[in-house]
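Subject: sequence -> structure tokens, single chain

Hey, anyone have a minute? Need the predicted structure for the following. Not urgent.
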Amino acid sequence: MTHELWTGQLDAYLDGELDSGELTKLDSHLRECPACAAEGLRRLQWKKTVQAAGQRYVADPKLRERVARALRPRVARTLLSALRLGPAAAAALAIILGLAGISLYRENVHRERNNQIVSELADLHVSTLASSTPVDVVSSDRHTVKPWFAGKIPFTFDVPELQGSPFELVGGRVSYLEQSPGAELIFRVRKHQISVFIFQARAISERFPSAGPIDARSFHFETWTRNRLRYFAIGDASQEDIQGLSNLLKSKQ
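Reply:
Had a minute. Here:
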């Protein structure tokens, strides 16, 4: 593969948009090619500059100057030491520094994306709570709610038997997360409402936590993946109730 083809993947690489196979190949190439690593670092710096320009609040310039003064001698000493060892060592150091900067940037991108997903789901839940018509299909019968989604979303799912549990199925509606269609099931427990969102797992970033509770503003939030579907349960009910409903849903998968 030519340098142009490698560098053509750098923007997608930095934004976390490559699939796992392409990511592994490009990672390996960057560790061996100083030119591509340098180009990746240049684009990283450019993206960080653009991000900084769009931020409303910035750090005090005096703080930046103090940090720069503190770091400058250390970086200079490291570079001088590498240069004394020869061009090969300097190239290796350039690759290491470039990869470190790229890695930190990509981690920050993934963190921001994950936070955006949680925020979007919280917004969808709040919109449902505030809506005068919170569900498109109103029924406590799981045999009515499940078939209603047929043809409206590109997958099927099971609804648990709630008899003998404190949970009541209110109904459901079609929701969208990052432009992907999915199901939102509304449950009620002790005057609290819980939204359970179901989407195809491939529609969610692979770097999003695969299971467990997650901080979601003032809501409790649980997520898991089963049978190529990603489930999210969110609400202001107790964590025990969220976990209890999640366990019921998992038992049907």
